[in-house]
Specification:
Elements: H1 11-41, H2 55-83, H3 89-101, H4 104-136, H5 143-158, E1 173-176, E2 179-180, H6 187-198, H7 213-231, H8 243-265, H9 280-293, H10 305-325, H11 331-346, H12 352-364, H13 368-381, H14 387-399, H15 403-418, H16 429-434, H17 443-447, H18 450-453, H19 463-467
Antiparallel strand pairs: 1-2
Helix pairs in contact: 1-4, 4-7, 5-7, 6-8, 7-8, 8-9, 8-10, 9-10, 10-11, 10-12, 11-12, 12-13, 13-14, 14-15
Length: 468
Amino acid sequence: MRTQACRSLHPIHLFAFVCGLSLCFLFANSATARYAWSATASPSASALSIPAGGPSTTVATLERQSVGQSLQNLADKLADKLSSPPESDYDYTLKRSIDLLTSPAIWIAGILVCIALFFWFTYRTEIRSIIKNVEKLKIGEYLEVVRTTVQDIRSVFERGLAVDLLIRSDLSSVTSTANPMPDDFFVFIRYPIDKLGKTLDDPFISSPSELSPAWLRHLEMQLAMQEEKVRSSPHFDEEKPPKDFTEFRWTLFRVLVALGNYYGFVTLRTPPTDGPPVDIDSAFHFLRRAVALFPLRGEQMETTVGYAQLCMGAVAGLVSISLFDQNVPCTNLMERAIEYLKVAEENGIKDPKLYHLKAFLQFDLQRYDEAAATWKMAADKSQPPSSKMKYNEACAWAKWHKYSESLTALELAIEIFRRPGGNIDGFDPQKMATSLEEGPEFEPFRAGIPAAQNARSIRGRSFEEIVA
């Protein structure tokens, strides 16, 4: 890892050095030409002969010699022109082309253009990223943010990775002591998984007062610069990068996830009546950037790439559920949420909360058989066992008209609830199943439909016997 004392020559310094050297060469070339012209045009003092007669006689003699010499030169040039054939256009063009190609100024200008093109193609991503982020900043009340950001950008180019870790590993700050990160921001790292563990109702919250728009814009600018720094590092594609680089990569990943979750769960100031109540596009934007960092392995779930995909599924899923409850068409968003959750599962996330949300979306899409199987997986992975997951599985089987499977799952849900310590969250599956409002899926059993009335659980019990 490079240090401040032994960092390599910066490209900007090299470019300035080349430009300065070129200007010096042009100045020296121009001065030499002027000196050569003056030497040939002016006679030296030793070549002058001062006749005896004083200064006035000398001046008159020089004037006569100069006029006579000028007339002789003109006569010689005229004789040459008359004796030689006229110069063709081709010869003139060829002569001028040779003069241009052999001119030092043309070569120096070409070299400078090549250097400028080289720097553009090498650093065009950074330049475009800077321009793109600066365009997002407003002029006026955020002018101080622009000034501070320019200073931070300069520090990024002038310091090594070990020096400019603006985001510390403990996530206590992101830019500087002048821009401390509020403690409320840390909540959004685990907010989706904590919310899914409690309830799917009312997932959206208002913005904490400490997270101002100016602070968020400054954070976004810093993240863009640090992200480009990490992605352009030679350690990015290594299987075993240095420990400091890995820790910083995880830190940057977690902050991007937190920012994506902020936009995915903090309600807009003026939410639309028939659209998402949050900035879902910005949420996906930052979560995709977190996925692109692709941390190889994390000791905790929230430091893995699968967790960012789980967050994308949670944002899409909970937003679509909210729209579904308002009778707003959201089938495509539900399908996207299921795909995100599927990819998160493929990347190692086996949390029962993932399966619970996935099954809920499948249930709203009327894919009851898939929902029942997914809730069964959620129940199997829940520790301690969850009566709620088994109850949801029973509801899905009942909607799919698989009444025997429904009774078996309901029977096990009530059994888990009655065990010592089974009443964890106050969810009573027996009361839910017998309620007309909370358990409409079991209406076929209460209405006496023959297929449901004759169905039995794996232990041979009917609906009335199970809920009694």
